[in-house]
Amino acid sequence: MLMSEDPIQTPPGVAAPPAPSATGGLSGPRPLWLTFDCYGTLIQWDEGLLAAIRQVLAGKAHPVEPARFIAVYDRHEHALEESRPHLDFRTVAGRAMAAAMTELGLEPDPADAAVLTDSIGRMPPFPEVVASLARLKAAGFRLAVISNTDDAIIAGNIAQLGGHVDRVITAQQAGAYKPSRTIFEHGWRALGVTRDEIVHVCASPHLDLAAARDLGFRAVWVDRGTGRRPLPDYRPDATVPALDAVPGVLAAAGWM
User: What sign for the dihedral angle of Cα 233, 43, 177, 181?
Assistant: First the structure.
């Protein structure tokens, strides 16, 4: 749905990779808006996805490792997101879940997708997110979310962000999922800005950073140490380990 790469699970007994430090720097005119990916950037997506899939698999006739199921589900989901006409995310999740179940020899159940989609809005923000958004809002930036989801699904997440988000742009509104240029260009039109008047903050290399590379907008990568790898042919303008490092990057650019 929302992160192109599978969550990386650290094997038992193996130390997790060290947390990255902030690198790079922003330049150019001060942005009018900061736009954010939601899941994995603001909201604890990997943790919530794993919990939902474990719940789904617990009732199945034979065991399948959650990480294996997520990889198969993810492949089907992204193929459906690229199909035309546009499908809302509940439809995508239902079809992808059924396809993954069938591929892995499990019995599909229409209720399986609802376990996932109903859980998404309850997934909480990372601990530093609300305070970081408050700092950015107090510095005069307008804040928007651009997300690969439906309006009704994301509403529960936005409600947990302290009232700091000014606009929410979804795939449902745009009729397209990231990394398509359509959703970003729809978002900029809705905000009344050009690509040069925003900075995008995101965690997904293969969705958001791929779009930044192709469309030429400024981007800050939130590398939370999950093991997701940067694109080989693109370097974000700045990289931070968590959202609370973003104000420092903006201050270094002379914008705070």
Answer: negative
Looking at residue 145, its amino acid is V
Which residue ranges does the chain devote to CATH 3.40.50.1000? 23-44+124-252
Q: What is the DSSP string of 206-245?
A: IIIIHHHHHH--EEEEE--SS-PPPPTT---SEEESSGGG
Q: What is the DSSP letter of 194?
A: -
* Residue range(s) of every CATH 1.10.150 domain in the chain: 46-120
| β pairing state of 167-170 and 142-147 | parallel
* Domain 23-44+124-252, second-level architecture: 3-Layer(aba) Sandwich (3.40)
**Which residues lie below 8 Å from residue 213, measured CB to CB, with a gap of 6+?**
231, 233, 234
Q: Give dist(CA 232, CA 205) in Å, integer.
A: 10
Handedness of CA 49, 52, 58, 61 (dihedral sign): negative
**What pTM, to 2 d.p., does this model score?**
0.90
Residue that the structure tokens 């270094």 belong to: 252
**What phi and psi, each to the nearest 5 degrees, are found at residue 198?**
-130, 160
Q: Tell me the backbone φ, ψ of residue 199, rounded to 5 degrees.
A: -130, 130
Q: Which two tokens stand for residue 13?
A: 């007994």
1.10.150, 1.10.1220, 1.10.1760, 3.40.1440: CATH of 46-120? 1.10.150
Q: pLDDT averaged over consecutive 10-residue blocks of the chain (256 residues)? A: 46 43 80 98 96 94 94 96 96 97 95 95 98 98 98 98 98 98 98 98 96 97 92 95 98 96
